Amino acid sequence: MRLLTVNVVEELIPGPKETGFTAIDKRPQDGRVQVGVLGLAGDRVCDTKNHGGPDLALYAYAEEDANWWAAQLGRDIPTGLFGENLRTQGVDVNGALLGEVWAIGDEVEVMVRAPRIPCITFQHRMQEPRWVKRFHQAGRPGAYLKVLRTGSIAAGDPVRIVSRPDHEVTIAHMFGAQDPAKLRTMLDSGVDLMDELRETAHRVLARD
């Protein structure tokens, strides 16, 4: 399991939101890149209402899922096209549990926090019909990560699972089916959750 690329914004480009510009255009970096609590050195966030912050500091997407999309769409999915900061290889990003901790290289530790929710900016970026719906249906959202230990990372760094919480709610599960029994176990486990996901779990349980 390793990083294929580490990506930061190349330039701000016009987007569809009222912010006017978007930082979704990420490109791979040479050498080591510093990682802080708010993400990669040199990266940017334009829509701070819906993106960024400590819980959404990094966005990881798997090469295996990018290749699946390439076959589905009949086009290349180069690293950074989805706005990901980290393109991984051999990492089951969508199978990662909420609260799972990874070590990246020798210094950095991150916690798996939430699935990526597609938005109008992503639709605008891809220029694919019904992209938001298709992305939802595919169940391959990638994961947002919180930085627990800062340092530097680079392409080729190994990724290692440090710990996994005692529940079964994965990134893909939280993005899709949201089985009440699994959500209840997750809440009972005491795992550190984003408030938004905790509230979502409670709403699902209230309907059950």
UniProtKB/TrEMBL annotation:
Domain (MOSC) ranges: 27-162
One matching Pfam family: MOSC
GO MF annotation, one: molybdenum ion binding
PANTHER family xref list: PROTEIN YIIM
Alphabetical list of InterPro entries matching this protein: Benzoxazolinone_Detox_Enz, MoCF_Sase_C, Pyrv_Knase-like_insert_dom_sf
Species per Swiss-Prot/TrEMBL record: Kribbella solani
UniProt protein name: MOSC domain-containing protein YiiM
